[in-house]
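The instructor's notes for this session suggest beginning with a concrete chain rather than abstract definitions. Hand out the sequence below and ask the class to guess, before any prediction is shown, which regions might be ordered.
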Amino acid sequence: MEILSQYYVTQTDIQKLLQMTHKKAKKIYEKVSEMENQELGEFRAHDNKVALKKVLKCLKIDYNFLVRQCQLEEQKKEPSASLAATESSR
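After discussion, reveal the predicted structure:
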């Protein structure tokens, strides 16, 4: 997933990546945003984004584990897509 290649993520990115509701993603975003405000203050790089690594740290999710999970999800989707393409060409 291309979101994993980004250093900074938006609230919508968090929602898509972690497959959660808008409300939960907003709470996580606000919590991490507040942490960044305390740490960096006016030196924050983005006003509307937070560091992905800090989001994962806040949720106690290992980055490498999440990458593997996304790769497995993509592999599950690929066979069905190639099967559909094969059937449609008949």
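Then share the key points. The first strand starts at residue 8 and ends at 9. Helices lie at 11-18, 22-40, 52-59, 63-88.
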